[in-house]
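Components:
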Amino acid sequence: AAGVIQSPRHLIKEKRETATLKCYPIPRHDTVYWYQQGPGQDPQFLISFYEKMQSDKGSIPDRFSAQQFSDYHSELNMSSLELGDSALYFCASSSPRGNSPLHFGNGTRLTVT
Amino acid sequence: AQSVTQPDIHITVSEGASLELRCNYSYGATPYLFWYVQSPGQGLQLLLKYFSGDTLVQGIKGFEAEFKRSQSSFNLRKPSVHWSDAAEYFCAVGPSLGGTASKLTFGTGTRLQVTL
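Structure:
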């Protein structure tokens, strides 16, 4: 079965640079979520989109922005990167059906040097 | 605000032994409850979920969990652990509003080590 695809798997950036993470949800899933997981931490909700509109916002820094496109894929844009942004970034998607759980991708590991 | 507590940071069990991972939640309404497993450097895989109905839910890989409203608990169990079960386990709670598990709140995880 198709899963959530995230790219790239690994990304190394320097401080103050920008990064773009991409997420391709499971086909026919209309909702996308972004989570950040720091080393040894639990995943923290950043932001979500439903039908291309932002549906909820968590602890996402102002330096980050995200959007969902017409094909339902999503991109997380991160600017002015800081060392503390180094983390595993997960995307998850869910279907329009009720009681739909989140299905996670394998994540993008971002390292800021 | 919703919250999840996993009191055990690290658990070690012998292969073949039974396992119970504890999870307590705090939520104002009927919660959606989940268990996810994460292998090192990997994504989160859904083990099982509870929305309503039978309080004992079966998941993949031989795992089960029991929802106990009176104790605000959703403990994960497995009768016989395999070495491949070594991983990090996360309990999560999500709002039931709208029937979609949006914006999960995770516990801090329990790292399971399996000895041979």
